[in-house]
Design brief:
Helix content is 44%, strand content 13%. It is of the alpha+beta class. A hairpin with a 7-residue loop joins β1 and β2.
């Protein structure tokens, strides 16, 4: 996850949410959430009903990006959203920040995974992709594989 500025008035709420989310996630995965898996927690004071947490693949210098694990992050998150009757979901660009997944390589994996899932599920009506900045969004737009229909 990229660093983001948090207003002082919400910093305490964010820290409390994070402690609660980590505690909830560890209850199901005492050794930590495995790469590609997803878990749903309440959203605490955030303006959402739930937060779905996932751990993307880490790409080391000279290492190969794992499309299979990145796709699993999105697929498993979408499956959890569907299981809980959620109609919308927003994703950051998973693993493309500090975890080093190449942005141009992530775009076709993400778009193919989301499009395939949505063809099979009618529950989710809206998927938002949220990027750290406009250059990240442009890289995605230049490399995605969404159909034109």
């Amino acid at each position: 996850m990229e660093a983001a500025w948090t207003a002082p008035s919400t910093a305490a709420a964010a820290r409390a949410f994070w402690r609660s989310a980590v505690s909830s996630a560890r209850n199901g995965f005492p050794g930590g959430l495995p790469t590609g898996e997803a878990v749903l927690t309440t959203a605490g004071a955030l303006p959402a009903k739930f937060v779905i947490h996932t751990v993307g693949p880490i790409v080391r210098a000279g290492g190969e990006a794992s499309a299979r694990l990145l796709a699993a992050c999105y697929r498993n998150s979408l499956a959890l959203a569907t299981e809980h009757g959620l109609r919308s979901i927003a994703f950051p660009a998973i693993s493309t920040g500090a975890y080093g997944y190449p942005r141009a390589d992530a775009a076709p994996v993400v778009s193919t995974t989301i499009e395939y899932f949505l063809r099979e599920s009618a529950t989710i009506k809206e998927v938002r992709l949220v990027f750290y900045d406009s250059s990240d969004a442009q890289i995605f737009l230049d490399h995605h594989t969404f159909s034109e229909h």
